């Protein structure tokens, strides 16, 4: 990707990157310009499916769609000695 900004008003801005259910997005800024990135992380007991980072491109769009957080395939229950693994 190649981002060129001669003047501040020439900067290419991307819209909001989008939120994800059962997770959060880490925003370094509230406004995204070419080259800026947003990172996604899932809540505990969830796994990320898709890319964890999206970057604002010179076209004014993010290069990837927001990922999804899905329930982890196996969950270890350490609080109950009788239950060792549980599939969801």
Can you describe what's shown?
By secondary structure, the chain is mostly beta strands. The protein has a single domain (8-87), classed as Ribbon (Complement Module, domain 1). The chain contains no helices and nine strands. The strands form four sheets. It has a three-stranded antiparallel β-sheet with strand order 2-4-6, with no helix packed on it. The radius of gyration is 18 Å and the shape is elongated. The N and C termini lie far apart (40 Å). Mean pLDDT is 80; it is low at 75-88.
Give the N-terminus to C-terminus distance in angstroms. Answer: 40 Å
| Whole-angstrom Rg | 18 Å
Strand order of the largest sheet: 2-4-6
Q: Unreliable runs, pLDDT <50, ≥5 residues?
A: 75-88
Q: Give the count of structural domains.
A: 1
Structural key phrases:
single chain, 88 residues, mainly beta, Complement Module, domain 1, disordered C terminus
Question: How are the elements arranged and paired?
Answer:
Layout: E1 13-14, E2 23-26, E3 32-33, E4 37-42, E5 46-49, E6 53-55, E7 68-71, E8 74-76, E9 85-87
Antiparallel strand pairs: 1-3, 2-4, 4-6, 5-7, 8-9
State the gist of this model:
0% of the residues lie in helices and 35% in strands.
């Amino acid at each position: 990707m190649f981002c060129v900004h001669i003047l501040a008003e020439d900067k290419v801005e991307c819209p909001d990157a989008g939120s994800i259910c059962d997770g959060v997005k880490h925003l370094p800024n509230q406004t995204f310009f070419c080259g800026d990135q947003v990172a996604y992380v899932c809540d505990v007991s969830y796994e990320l499916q898709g890319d964890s980072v999206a970057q604002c491109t010179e076209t004014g769009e993010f290069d990837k769609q927001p990922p999804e957080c899905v329930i982890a395939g196996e969950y270890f229950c350490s609080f109950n000695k009788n239950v060792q693994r549980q599939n969801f």
